[in-house]
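Thread: Newbie trying to understand structure tokens

Hi all, I'm a second-year student working on a class project, and my supervisor (Dr. K.) asked me to get a predicted structure for one chain before our next meeting. I've only ever worked with sequences, so writing a 3D structure as a token string is new to me. If someone could post the tokens and maybe explain what I'm looking at, I'd be very grateful. Here's the chain:
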Amino acid sequence: MDYIARMARTRIKVCGVRDTETALVASECGADAIGLVFAEGSVRRVEPEAAWEIACVVPPFVAKVGLFVDAGAERYHEVMERCPCDYGQLHGGEGVDEVRECGPRIIKAVRFDESTIGDEIRKWNEVAEVEALLIDGGAGGEGRSFDWRALARVQDECVHPIILAGGLTAENVGEAIRIVRPWAVDVSSGVERERGIKDARLIEAFCDAVRAADEG
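---
Reply by user tm_fold:
Sure, no problem. This is what the structure looks like when written as tokens:
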């Protein structure tokens, strides 16, 4: 176990990528995944055809994640046929049946609430189509943080890898990693110079901060 702990590293997902330049910057800075937002009404939304152009420039072994919010299984599969992604991220109030219809290879997002997080973890533990649980402080892309220590107290109950999101920046991601030790961190607004517009320098700083936390 000590050897595994020393070798472990925190994966990085940069979400809300809207152009090929940002996708390449994220990949070059060390991101393990990019998020393509298909949710209606989001400032980071991309059409499936544009998302496919982005996906085609991403280097091998960098995962593409399609993000949906209460889209329904039919719409989910329609978009994923037009822009095949490695994973689907469901970031709304999708129930167990809908998640199973959309599966496999689902990342299920859960909004953190200290009073309900234990029940949420146990519910999704039973769903084989879920490959990771993303814990966010808000509805996604809001930059809303939460009590990481409260999550750390219950995280061992989760059988899925935990992806930590919500208000993460280069300045605080190191502390978040030290407290939670998540499988991965997910950043969107924390690497933007204005809402919906990513900044290459902020992406680089965020990835550097994650590596520094792992080394420390």
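A couple of things are worth pointing out once you decode it. The first helix runs from residue 2 to 7. The chain has one domain: 2-215. Feel free to ask follow-ups in this thread.
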